[in-house]
Amino acid sequence: MENITVYPNPTSGNFELKISDFDLKNSFEIEVVNSVGQIILFKKISSSHEEVDLSPYSKGIYFLKIKSKEYSGLRKLVIE
Fold first, then answer.
1. Higher pLDDT residue, 32 or 72?
2. CA-CA distances (angstroms) from residue 72 to 1, 29, 30, 34, 56?
3. Ramachandran region of residue 25, left (φ > 0), alpha (ψ -120 to 50) or beta?
4. How many other CB atoms are there within 10 angstroms of residue 27's CB atom?
5. pTM higher than 0.70 for the full model?
6. I want to staple 11 with a disulfide (CB 3.0 to 4.6 A). Which of 6, 15, 17, 70 is the partner?
7. How many C-beta atoms lie closer than 10 Å to residue 62's C-beta?
8. For residues 66 and 41, what is the distance between their CA atoms, to the nearest angstrom?
């Protein structure tokens, strides 16, 4: 889905998630998963802009899963 933006990426731990064309009737769920498949963050969001803090976690590659009724997607996150 091209109307989902994650920035900055790579990040020092804090990043922003923006969803354009956001429909307030739909909520999204986000999961951040580490390289061994453990869910380190689960959050339900109901706005077009969300700030996420992963600064307590180690540097490395993580995956951001974004789900709603109409959409499911995956983004790679790098914490430096």
1. 32
2. 9, 9, 10, 18, 26
3. alpha
4. 14
5. yes
6. 15
7. 19
8. 12
Residue 42 pLDDT greater than 80, yes or no: yes
Q: How far apart are CA 16 and CA 51, in angstroms?
A: 5
Residue 13 in tokens: 């731990």
Do 50 and 43 meet the contact criterion of CB atoms below 8 Å apart?
Answer: yes
Using only the alpha carbons of the chain, give its radius of gyration: 12
Q: Which amino acid is at 77?
A: L
Residue where the block lists tokens 């899963």 = 65
pLDDT at 22: 63
Cα angle 18, 9, 51 (rounded to 5 degrees) comes to: 40
Q: How many CA atoms lie within 13 A of 49 on its CB side?
A: 0
Whether 15 has a pLDDT exceeding 90, the answer reads yes
